[in-house]
Design a protein that fits this description.
8-stranded mixed beta sheet, 3-stranded antiparallel beta sheet, TIM Barrel, 16% strand, alpha/beta, 39% helix, single chain
Length: 374
């Protein structure tokens, strides 16, 4: 028990029993009767200059995704027949036209989106504003990426090093009241959580919510959960991914062989903390998708599954682009077919639009389709 408390982020300040309850039980359970929907979005912390490779190698990483994602998206339609969408959260402090343009081509084709990712150390408020605004300006001016309706470009956000709102200190951030600042700059939602890091992980898990900023770090620790048909106050919307403990597939096999009681003696070595990471070291399985379905945030009969990866790294792209992503989408489709649910493979912007529609009490599918027609 002590080992679990030491290794599972967020346990220390809420207690193990309360932590497990929040991770294992979804407050929206059970789903209402009738047709339900699953919204799936992947937020890629896309860093083509990872490990300080030469520019030629970084360009090759972007070009690989430009080539392979078009093929995968067309091969993996959702229940409406739309090709899958992907979201690249590009690090603004590493902006180079030649690294972003291959991804922008996918965006202009309607198969992807580009959002904001940033790593900063003791950055001033002014420097933070300039970095994000310069990047957004480049997306519109140099890459032709504009939101429907025009106007200033709104953006989704993922904080580098899991240090949203200075939760891990100045070495990884340095700006308190970051939530309000992001909202002022046009951030439509934050997608950083869950982090799985002890300092930044919040105990407010598996719920879409709005957080109100304070002068102190980690203001997103608490908030007001969204509900269909009513708007809750707050400075910034947070759409987290699934978070909770999960037994490995190896333990499940041992349970089937030995029985539950005997297999429980091995559980402490076969328990993993799942944060929705698509990685070479945590492969996909039907059991894993089912665990996501069990704990992912829900609004009414809509389940929101926000996953993430670091797709520019070869150790992950070698898996994702050679069958891994197709397996993900096929597993989701099969699970939904078994339950009689619809499924939508969307960008994070489209996921946000669906959340807003549900909050307003209107049809989220019609809302997205209406935006596409403009």
């Amino acid at each position: 028990m002590r080992r679990l408390k030491e290794t599972l982020p967020g346990v220390g300040h809420v207690g193990l029993a309360k932590w497990l309850f929040r991770c294992l039980w979804n407050p929206s359970w059970p789903l209402p009767r009738g047709r339900s929907r699953v919204w799936v979005a992947i937020g890629d912390h896309f860093e083509p200059l990872w490990r300080h490779v030469p520019m030629s190698a970084a360009v090759a990483r972007s070009m690989l995704w430009r080539r392979e994602w078009e093929r995968i998206a067309e091969a993996c339609p959702d229940s409406t027949g739309r090709p899958a969408r992907y979201t690249f959260f590009y690090p603004v402090e590493k902006y180079h036209f030649e690294l972003v343009e291959p991804l922008a081509e996918l965006c202009r084709m309607g198969l992807a989106d580009l959002e904001v990712h940033i790593h900063h150390q003791y950055l001033t408020r002014e420097g933070f504003i300039a970095a994000i605004q310069n990047y957004l300006t480049a997306l519109v001016r140099d890459h032709g990426l504009q939101r429907p309706g025009g106007g200033p470009r709104q953006f989704g956000f993922i904080h580098g090093d899991w240090s949203l709102d200075n939760s891990r200190g100045g070495e990884f951030c340095g700006i308190n009241e970051e939530l309000r600042l992001l909202a002022e700059l046009g951030c439509y939602a934050d997608f950083t959580m869950p982090s799985g890091e002890p300092d930044s992980q919040t105990s407010f898990v598996n719920r879409i919510y709005r957080a109100t900023d304070t002068p102190l770090p980690k203001s997103y620790e608490t908030g007001r959960a969204l509900r269909p048909g009513s708007k809750v106050p707050g400075d910034l919307l947070l759409i987290p991914g699934p978070f909770g403990p999960r037994a490995t597939d190896a333990w499940l096999q041992r349970r089937n062989q030995l029985g539950l009681l005997r297999a429980l003696t091995f559980l402490h070595t076969e328990l993993r903390l799942d944060t929705g990471d698509l990685a070479s070291y945590d492969l996909l399985s039907r059991h894993r998708v089912r665990r996501w379905f069990a704990v992912a945030p829900r609004l009414g009969n809509n389940l929101f599954l926000k996953l993430f990866t670091h797709g520019a790294q070869e150790r992950h792209s070698d898996v994702l682009l050679t069958g891994g992503l197709e397996k993900l989408y096929s597993l989701v489709a099969a699970e939904c077919a078994e339950r009689g649910w619809d499924f939508h493979f969307v960008s994070t912007w489209e996921m946000y639009r669906a959340v807003c529609a549900i909050e307003a009490g209107v049809d989220p599918v019609a809302s997205i389709q209406g935006e596409e027609s403009h």
